[in-house]
Amino acid sequence: MEKKAVILLSGGLDSATCLALARRRGFAAYALSFDYGQRHRCELEAAHRVAVALGAVEHRIFRLNLDQWGGSALTDRSLDVPVDEAAEGCDVIPITYVPARNLVFLSLAAAWGEVLGAHDIFIGVNSVDYSGYPDCRPEFISAFQSAVDMGTRAADEKWHWRVHTPLQQLGKKEIIELGVSAGVDYSLTVSCYDPDETGAACGHCASCQLRRAGFAAAGVPDPTRYRVG
Amino acid sequence: MEKKAVILLSGGLDSATCLALARRRGFAAYALSFDYGQRHRCELEAAHRVAVALGAVEHRIFRLNLDQWGGSALTDRSLDVPVDEAAEGCDVIPITYVPARNLVFLSLAAAWGEVLGAHDIFIGVNSVDYSGYPDCRPEFISAFQSAVDMGTRAADEKWHWRVHTPLQQLGKKEIIELGVSAGVDYSLTVSCYDPDETGAACGHCASCQLRRAGFAAAGVPDPTRYRVG
Lengths: 229, 229
Description:
By secondary structure, the first copy, chain A, is of the alpha/beta class. Helices cover 35% and strands 11% of the residues of chain A.
């Protein structure tokens, strides 16, 4: 029987790559997305297209009302998403940081994984481009792994969770190269912080800049649909 | 200004005691309950009564669809809650264990806490009566504390989360004595695994047995409303 893994899937480039890598490593993939009040519904539609295209066994969209307490430009409608936030890694926590987001997402992945009998979780965190987000750093992932080992059946049944972060040390160029080799169709993904209702990207925000530069550096034609103007 | 704390509040005896202790220690209390598909809506009503009675600044009920993946007798309607599960601490994981529940709850408490500017979380875990639940043990709480320190602003802003577990080593008798001294009105709380729709307790389940024995041992009249028959 194939081993099962839960893959956190946002609809963006990184998590699509993670899903492809989990499949290539032979895991039966259970994709998990969150409807957490992010401004862009098209991300969830993208996540679903990616899950289907890459042969996930199941794709769940978990409704999680993180927008109810605000605190981030991605969920709080009273804050503007900065479109020209520096695209390079930054030392301060960006306003697009959602408090404790990856902690919450990983905890729910573990909850589902425990029910499924999965011991593996894939998450597309990255320390190169997102060094400003505390919950994308390897120190956090490793501390989380200890916590989930202690707080679930793993402790009693003498096995260990493994949180896979295959993109941790890669730049966008390397991520795209890896994803293309693993069969990702990046035209299905949405990375933009400010897409229009059809999912077309703005081309200007930090996320678009990173993504565009990644395709250019990898020598891969950029399949992103940008909006006009 | 009062320091803020997030208190996980279930509507039961233990978490009501935690809230009273947080107030006595001078914290402005932000009570957080989860509507996670537990069978008993009366628990959430009890939580609200307790939050009001003990002067919480705010009480949030966070909708969390843990019932969607089942895996516990408390959320999965295809499993029966065992009414005569041994009331004493047990060595196997009980069927009432909800996978990764406290990990998920603490993560969301931290998410809200980060938005509020709270660095303190209170949770009524207990190793005496609930030794069978991996997510009630001190090893888990301490591992969680490291994870949340790493995965939030705490890492960058050089402060530490503190997860308070004031009931960790107490039996029900001691918990009740402490709660009475801190002003808890236990008639507002619901502990039963199988209450009727009015919140009246069955008197027979593991949780009722523990609670009843606790009042008897503490020499406090049991204010629980039991159903007839």
